[in-house]
Design goal:
This protein is α+β, with helices and mostly antiparallel strands. The protein has two domains: 5-82, Phosphorylase Kinase, domain 1; 85-221, D-amino Acid Aminotransferase, Chain A, domain 1 (2-Layer Sandwich), CATH 3.30.470.20. 31% of the residues lie in helices and 32% in strands. It has helices at 46-63, 100-105, 134-140, 145-168, 213-216, 222-236; strands at residues 5-8, 12-16, 23-28, 31-34, 39-42, 70-73, 78-82, 85-86, 89-96, 112-122, 131-132, 171-182, 188-191, 199-203. Strands 8, 9, 10, 11, 12, 13 and 14 form a seven-stranded antiparallel sheet that branches. A hairpin with a 4-residue loop joins strand 4 (31-34) and strand 5. Helix 1 runs parallel beside helix 6. 35% of the residues are buried. The structure holds cytidine-5'-monophosphate. Belongs to the SAICAR synthetase family. Pathway: Purine metabolism; IMP biosynthesis via de novo pathway; 5-amino-1-(5-phospho-D-ribosyl)imidazole-4-carboxamide from 5-amino-1-(5-phospho-D-ribosyl)imidazole-4-carboxylate: step 1/2. Residues 5-232 form the SAICAR synthetase/ADE2 N-terminal domain. It catalyses: 5-amino-1-(5-phospho-D-ribosyl)imidazole-4-carboxylate + L-aspartate + ATP = (2S)-2-[5-amino-1-(5-phospho-beta-D-ribosyl)imidazole-4-carboxamido]succinate + ADP + phosphate + 2 H(+).
Length: 237
């Protein structure tokens, strides 16, 4: 008997894990979307690569003491995670200017941010995930002011770990998006995924883009660059 499908998102399917209370199976899809679903495609192998990369990064974050929803990688495209109530915020950390902030605020691409910036977006496809402030976040989600601060502090702590991990493999972590979820005991942990779909990753020496921007901008072979990230993680970390 197959697991019960609970939800299908743009990049993953979510199933109830059979016989395991409060656990889910995330199945990574080969689909790629950009610009809030306006650009769509599918790449053989993308689900496997993101599952493997995200699993590896969650394990490295666990070693660094960060609590996440991740339990285990189950197969090429599936992972087992704890069920969480997802907090409807996309928490973006930026070390270097790229993407939406360059257009929104007229900041030149590659401008470094010291200290890194944390931005909050409301996770709502119909509204196009708008940028929001702290008061909006408190109004739109079920978190307290202290929990919002905890989320922002965790995002910056995770940034330090991820920056170090990627630096080890010759990559600048430009920016990334995190999602957090509440476990049944009420605590808040890192959820969703950390992959080249959700991070901007530039080669330290050449500035070559090794992330979903190759698809967004049509400037390269997505599978080849995601393979490159996985190979470097497997070799050096
Ligand atoms: O588009 P923007 O520059 O705001 O994206 C910042 C970072 O968040 C990028 O690494 C992008 O891949 C990620 N992101 C994401 N999912 C979204 C929006 C942004 O993973 N819905």
């Amino acid at each position: 008997m197959k697991d019960v499908l609970l939800y299908e998102g743009k990049a993953k399917k979510v199933y109830q894990a059979k016989g395991k209370q409060n656990q889910l199976v995330l199945a990574y899809k080969n689909d790629a979307t950009a610009f809030n679903g306006e650009k769509k495609s599918s790449f053989n192998g993308k689900g496997r690569l993101n599952n493997e990369i995200s699993s590896k990064i969650f394990n490295l974050l666990h070693e660094a003491g960060v609590k996440t929803h991740f339990i285990d990688r189950l197969s090429e495209t599936e992972q087992l995670v704890y069920q969480t109530e997802i907090i409807p915020l996309e928490v973006v950390v930026r070390n270097v200017a790229a993407g939406s902030i360059t257009k929104r605020l007229g900041i030149e691409e590659k401008t470094p941010f010291h200290p890194p910036l944390v931005e909050l977006f409301f996770k709502d496809d119909e509204l196009g995930d708008p940028l929001i402030n702290d008061q909006h976040a408190l109004f739109l989600s079920s978190i307290t002011q202290d929990e919002l601060q905890e989320i922002k502090d965790k995002a910056l702590e995770i940034n330090q770990h991820l920056t170090r991990i990627f630096q080890c493999i010759g990559i600048t972590l430009v920016d990334f998006k995190l999602e957090f979820g509440r476990l049944t005991d009420g605590s808040i942990v890192l959820a969703d995924e950390v992959s080249p779909d959700t991070c901007r990753l530039w080669d330290i020496n050449t500035s070559e883009k090794l992330d979903k921007d190759v698809f967004r901008q049509g400037i390269g072979d997505l599978i080849q660059v995601y393979e490159e990230i996985l190979d470097r993680l497997e070799e050096k970390v």
